[in-house]
Amino acid sequence: MTEHRRNDDLLIQANRLTRWFGGFKAVDNMNLDLILGEMLGLIGPNGASKTTMFNMLAGSLRPNSGEIRLMGADVSSEGADKRIGRKLGRSFQIPKPFPNMTVLENILTGAQNQAGERLFDVCFRPGAVKRDEQAALERAHGLMDFLLLSHLANEPASVLSGGQRKLLELARILMADPEVILLDEPAAGVNPSLLEQINDRIIELNQKHGKTILVIEHNMDMIAKLCSRVVVMATGRELAQGIPSDVIRNPDVIRAYLGEDA
Question: Are residues 84 and 13 in the same domain?
Fold first, then answer.
């Protein structure tokens, strides 16, 4: 079970989440805490309903019952668009950038609360619009430098490799300056050399920039490298949690992944 934490340390607190699909209970009274400053892994065998749990935390799927609190606020009924305003950003397992837009243009779409989005400001505060646009442009160039995408700034997103698309999506998330980042299988479809680069940037975001991160991932080597704590799901419930080295030796976890004969 999830141990008790001080409320001011909890950025996400999910209590007794349940999600049904027709007559199938995909998530069954699941609890999960994400602690300020940590990197948490969410793992489990195929069919464990990790993605369903992840999507409820991200706001793209609502629980049938239970509560999700983000920085103390009840966001159980809020969608992903509201949660980005509360400083929560998420990636997708399969990134879908705008293929005909450049890398730079794709990143700029992640900017939030721009004066240029409001008709009044466009008409009567052109200076504010220009300042926001310049600030967003500078931030986008800084993120491209950080993620080693600057040489692709003016290339259409359609030419990017799978790993480069993961980096582009991360840059677009970071444009909104989230405090909590949910990463959906960042290793999926990425070649080993680029995966090291992605790992290094995720670690830097956590350790140097103070981002609190939850990672759902099948790559156990990556989870062991990134995460200080792991929650294991099986059949929609928490099976185990702890440090990665302990979890991967847990007999219940081994049986869940490999079967009873393991």
Answer: yes
User: Measuring CA to CA, which residue among 241, 248, 232, 247 is closest to residue 45?
Assistant: 232
Q: Are residues 123 and 77 in the same domain?
A: no
Report the percent of the chain where pLDDT is more than 90.
79
> Quick one: tokens of 224?
């062991």
Per residue in 162-184, pLDDT tens? Answer: 999 999 999 999 999 999 999 99
73 lies in a domain? Answer: yes
| Integer Cα distance of 262 and 250 in angstroms | 12
Q: Is 233 helix (H, G, I), strand (E, B) or coil?
A: strand
164 in any annotated domain: no
Q: Global pTM?
A: 0.90
Whether 3 has a pLDDT exceeding 50, the answer reads no
Q: Would you say 54 and 216 are in contact if contact means Cβ atoms under 8 Å apart? A: yes
**Which among 127, 21, 33, 102 has a CA at the least distance from the CA of 64?**
21
